[in-house]
Amino acid sequence: MKSKQRIGLAFSGGGIRGIAHLGVIKALDEFGIKPDQVSGSSAGAIAGAMYCKGYKADEIFDAIVSTNYFKFMRPAISWTGIFRMDTVVALFEKYFTEDDFASLSIPLTVAATDIKRGKVVYFSKGPLIKAVMASSCIPGMFDPIEIDGRYYVDGGVLNNMPVEPHEGVCDVIIGVNCNHLPEEHNITNIKNLIERTVIMSMNYNVYSRKNKCDFFIEPKGLAKYGVFDIKKAGEIYDAGYQAALKFIEEHEDFRDLGKLA
Q: Which Pfam families does the annotation name (predicted)?
């Protein structure tokens, strides 16, 4: 009989497109595929943190769509961002009553970018909420998050799918990207141009790590959704779920991970 393989699960960033990760989680749960540790950047850090805390996919989805994220923010009195994220702390405290990585049921690592040193920093112990906020702090949109005298922005800037924490530790690495672009797209205005350029950069960041993954799940066409397109949350959730189901059905060796759990 085969022994259980240690599984690492890495989630990409992608704004509201990160809701697709919840659909993937739902499918994995249905097939009994349980990660031994999780990593994520930005939206992937938020989804990963709630999953590691023990919330089910449907519960996380309901929490996200029922929350008006921006009502917790106020304009930044700074040239470094439009909004400050410090008022979001109360929102996170609602779901993470113990502000510590050690309180999670599954070990989690989140990636953030030290903006002054220009390097990726991985958080996996100590205070949880600020680390997740730092990982999801979109530069230019939000004021950088200060942790121990250092200033951090979105982990996706330098590592949008942090598989590195699983290397040498896990037998199997599963990567999930929520920013798939169609091969061709009709650029009609400057907004389209900027959005497509940013996503191309994000995906280059992800695809450079694809070969580190034993399995790579990427729901198709999600880049058509805007970063804050909350009205499409249901479609995005279902897209992640359906893509994961299809992937599981097509890969017998992936299904076997559930049998070994």
A: Patatin (PF01734)
Reply yes or no on whether 100 is catalytic: no
Do the bridges between strand 140-142 and strand 172-176 make them parallel or antiparallel, or are there none, so unpaired? unpaired
Q: Which residues pair with 128 in a beta bridge?
A: none
State pLDDT tens for residues 213-248. Answer: 999 999 998 988 887 788 899 999 999 999 999 999
Token pair listed for 260: 């070994």
* pTM attached to this predicted model: 0.90
**Exactly one of 12, 39, 41, 42 is catalytic; which is it?**
42
Q: What six digits make up the tokens of 146?
A: 């200060």
Confirm whether 42 is a catalytic residue.
yes
Q: Which amino acid is at 111?
A: A
147 and 29 Cβ atoms separated by less than 8 Å: no
Residues 6+ apart with CB under 8 A from 193: 187
